[in-house]
Every structure is written in structure tokens, then in C-alpha cells.
Amino acid sequence: MPTELEELVEFLHHGNTQIRQVATNALVAYSTQPSQIQIFKRNQLEPIKDLKLLIKDYAQIQKDALGVLTNLTAHNDREIIRSLCDDERFIGELCRQIVDLVNNENADSCCGLLANLTKDDELSKRLIPLERPVPPRVKVKKPSVIEVQVSTSKRVLDQLMDVFVKGANNSLNQKASYDYLSYVFADLSKHKEVREYLLAEQIYDNVQPIMKLIVFMEHGSLVRRKGVAGILKNLCFETNEHDDLMRDSDSGGVGILPYVLLPLAGPEELDDEDTADMLPELQLLGPDKKREADGDIVVMLVESLLLLTTTRQGRERLREAGTYPIIRELHKNWHGKETEIGEVREVSERFVDVLMRDEEPANDEDHKVEEVF
Length: 373
Hints:
Blueprint: H1 4-10, H2 17-30, H3 42-54, H4 59-74, H5 78-85, H6 88-99, H7 107-117, H8 121-127, E1 138-141, E2 145-148, H9 156-166, H10 181-188, H11 192-199, H12 209-213, H13 222-235, H14 242-246, H15 257-261, H16 272-275, H17 295-308, H18 312-320, H19 323-333, H20 338-356
Helix pairs in contact: 2-4, 3-4, 4-7, 6-7, 7-10, 10-13, 13-17, 17-20, 19-20
């Protein structure tokens, strides 16, 4: 005799909408429990196949189906993840619902699920070159109704980038912020092709995608800041691009240093000797300046600086930019969570050790960078 849970998963494909809704909603809680994961794999993953179809059902059913799939993929079960990642129609529908349906109230749930799935390297590699039709113009209520072209590119990566940028602060969709797309880009940027994409001026809008992203290091959303911090760190693995990354935008570079250093700076009053060489953006910050409070972001930003020290040119540029006092004060005044204090201070010490050491005579070899975030 089937258990109550086995009956619930059978109801996922029931013809009655109310029964499907009750079943899907009840399964959300079960999907958070690793001990219950096998029930979703019965009959050759039949419940997963049903859930993939339910993301096109009525809004509440769609929301719960997305919630179940997001919870299940968080358990990192390879069989379930492969069944989703290898389904091109499902991935295409997920991206379509993020980009096309600007008034889709479950767009953020779609973004969260996609963020879980792009941790899979095989899906990431297939998503990079993926193309689909240009999204249609949509009507957005701002308070007045206006028509918006989310993207003019056929490339899925461009479309996701544009909805992330244009949709910040619920400006495209009152019920969606698209913040979790920052985690999608952070995972994708582990791949060299995406790092090259982020640094290359795109044909459809003549803009380097990274220039659209770095401004969110000062955004109110922790998720956005954390995702962009991960992207910046991954870009710093491209040692051949360090000069362009650090050179300011007025000189044709990306100019990431102010965006990396500003979150690390606090309200401490520094003497003139310390501030003399600092970037203009970091001078005269004032007593109300707040340092980034999230330890994960702080560590990623300092690790980004550490990666920039792998070339002699990078070390010299960081010294010229007056980086040391910022990290010194960070190390001295970090008051994050107890578990974060050691990690923040350790990476700060590593950075200072490299930055402040005496340089070898000319022709010293740069360090190799092999690890990827």
C-alpha cells in the first residue's frame, strides 16, 4: 500500500488543478529533507519529469514546483541535476520565463533554480553559446505603462545580463529583482570563455559586460554584491588582463580598483601620508563611511587584490594606489562574525606580506595562478 508521500508525488500529474496544487505545495517541505530525496526519484524520476512540466502551470503551482526543484538541486544529487541540466527544452523554458515574461511573478524563483544548475560545468558550457529569439517588447508598469525592449541580442547570456541590469530594484518586474542571476554569472565566470566575454565589447550594444556589473558592488542587495564580488575575483585569474582591469576607464581600462577597495574602506580617519597616494574615490570618505559587513564578500575582494599581486606590474600599481592603509585598517578594525574574523585577517595578512616585501631585481618571475574560485 503506497505511503502518503508516495501518493503525493503521484498527484503531481493529476488532471485536477486543485489536486496538483495541494500536492505540489505539500511537497515543498519534503524536498528540503535529504532523507526524502529518493521519493522524487521513483519510477525512473517520474516526479522530476512532472515537476519540469509544472513550471508552465498556474502561478501558484509553478511557484511550488520551482521551489521543490530548487530545494532538490541544493542537495547536489547528481541524478536529479543531470535530469534537469540535460533537458534542453527545460533549460530553454527556464531562461524564457526569466527574460520574456517580465511580469512573471515567479521570475526570481526561476533565477534561483538556474543559479543552482549553473554550478554544473556541463550545463555552463552549453549555456555559454546558447541562442534563442530576441525577447519581445513588453509593457512595464512604472507607475505609467511603458514598453521596454529587454535585450536586442539573440544570445542567452546577453539576455540574462540585460534583464539583470535593467531589472535591478524591481524596475522591470514589481515582483522580481533578478538578484540571483549574479550567482549565475559568478559560476559561469569560472570558465575562460565567459571571462573573455565579460571583458570584450559586445557587438549588439558596444559595451563590456563587466562595466554593467561592477556598479552593483555598492548595491543594497547582499546577493548582488556577493555575486559580483565572485565575478571580480574570477576575472583576476586572467593575469594577462590585469593591466586593463586596473587601468581607469578614462584611459580605456575597466577600472575595478575603486569598486574593490571602497567596500573594504571604513570610517577611520587616516593621516595625510596615508591618503596622499590613494585613488580619488577613496580620499575624504568621512566618518559615516560604512565598511562591507559581509565576511564572504570581504574575503573575495581581498583575494582579488591578492591575485592582482601575481605580476610585478600589479604589485607596483597597487602600491601606487595607496592600497596598504585600506587593508591595514580593515585588518585592525574588522568586527564581522566570530567565524569570519580569522579568515578576513588571514587573507589581509597574506596580501600585505606580498605587497610590502622587497622586490627582487628586474626579471623576477611572476607567480603562477592555477586555482579557480
